[in-house]
């Protein structure tokens, strides 16, 4: 963890290690107790494919499981 400060124009400079690991583009998410920087992939569709490459179920199967879990949770 490192501390950073805004400059006189309101800009935030992230440490080199952070930029090298997560990239140069971020979504700024406002939370009730602060903000969160979420990295934006250069190719969001490719990032999704990589994230879910080991999922063997179809979208319909995943949707049905989620629906059933929500119904079970609702009682």
TrEMBL record:
<dbReference type="GO" id="GO:0003677">
    <property type="term" value="F:DNA binding"/>
</dbReference>
<protein>
    <recommendedName>
        <fullName>SpoVT-AbrB domain-containing protein</fullName>
    </recommendedName>
</protein>
<feature type="domain" description="SpoVT-AbrB">
    <location>
        <begin position="4"/>
        <end position="45"/>
    </location>
</feature>
<dbReference type="InterPro" id="IPR037914">
    <property type="entry name" value="SpoVT-AbrB_sf"/>
</dbReference>
<feature type="coiled-coil region">
    <location>
        <begin position="45"/>
        <end position="72"/>
    </location>
</feature>
<dbReference type="InterPro" id="IPR007159">
    <property type="entry name" value="SpoVT-AbrB_dom"/>
</dbReference>
<keyword id="KW-0175">Coiled coil</keyword>
């Amino acid at each position: 963890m490192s501390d950073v400060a805004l400059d006189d124009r309101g800009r935030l400079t992230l440490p080199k290690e952070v930029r090298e690991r997560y990239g140069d583009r971020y979504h700024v998410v406002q939370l009730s107790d602060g903000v969160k920087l979420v990295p934006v992939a250069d190719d969001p569709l490719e990032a999704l494919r990589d994230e879910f490459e080991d999922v063997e179920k179809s979208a319909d199967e995943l949707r049905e499981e989620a629906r059933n879990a929500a119904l079970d949770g609702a009682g």
